[in-house]
Amino acid sequence: MVLSMMLQVPKILFSVFKEHQQLKKIIEEHKIDMVISDNRYGLWNKNIESLFITHQINIQAPVFEKLLFRINSWFIAKYDECWVPDYEGENNLSGDLSHPKNEFYKKNFPENIKYIGPQSRFTKGIQTEEKIYEAVGIVSGPEPQRTLFFEKLQNDFKKINGKTLIISGHPEIVKKIEDRNITIVNHLNDDAFLSALYAAKKIICRSGYSTIMDLHVLGLNAKYIPTPGQTEQEYLAEKLRSR
């Protein structure tokens, strides 16, 4: 993964430069006053207010972590504010990803950080659903790991004595499938999704930060399985496992 990231650096920097130039044209054409950038490093401009959103100030890496931190901080400092969707204090969700872990990071941490609390499209409701599912699995992420995770959930859920549900995220599954004790659906609307989560004795999912924030806001816990090779998810899964 490290080698892959290093090989992509020129491409990433070119994309940042390109979007930075495109933003200049957009500002001139549409008279933009403010830009809010969701983790897009080139969308700042000194003539307008520019806001950056990220939960990864310190990118986790087995090597060159401090160098990556300095580069990341340089870009973040170009913005007027950096909004971090987490709590500021010790009782937080993202840990070292968006909080200084030692004196080096405290000394060099960007000064424009603003913690705005976890963000989610959901709000916590009253849990009235009966716990009808022994487990609910949520499949997400890039291929081929998405399919591998889906297949592992299927194999593991067949061994469970009781009803289970897999939300597969596979568009080719156009209707509900019943397989022994497993119900498989491609997608659920927000109300059905919330009902399924509240009806689960156990939730199993990837440790993506958006998922973590959603479950936190809903007051639910999960068994987090990181996508192999994604250092952010591996760190978050380990952090939450130890809580």
Features:
six-stranded mixed sheet, 10 strands, alpha/beta, 243 residues, single chain
Quick overview of this protein structure:
This protein has 243 residues and is of the alpha/beta class. The chain has 7 helices and 10 strands. The strands form 2 sheets. It has a 6-stranded mixed β-sheet. Strands 1-2-3-4 form a 4-stranded parallel β-sheet, with no helix packed on it.
Q: What can you see in these coordinates?
A:
This protein is of the alpha/beta class and 243 residues long. It has 2 domains: 2-115, no CATH class; 135-241. Helix content is 37%, strand content 15%. The chain is built from 7 helices and 10 strands. It has helices spanning 2-30, 65-76, 103-108, 145-157, 190-198, 209-218, 231-241, and strands at residues 34-38, 49-53, 81-84, 113-115, 135-138, 164-167, 177-179, 182-185, 203-205, 223-224. The chain has a 6-stranded mixed β-sheet. It has a 4-stranded parallel β-sheet with strand order 1-2-3-4, with no helix packed on it. Helix 2 links the parallel strand 2 (49-53) and strand 3 (81-84). The radius of gyration is 20 Å and the shape is elongated. The mean pLDDT is 92.
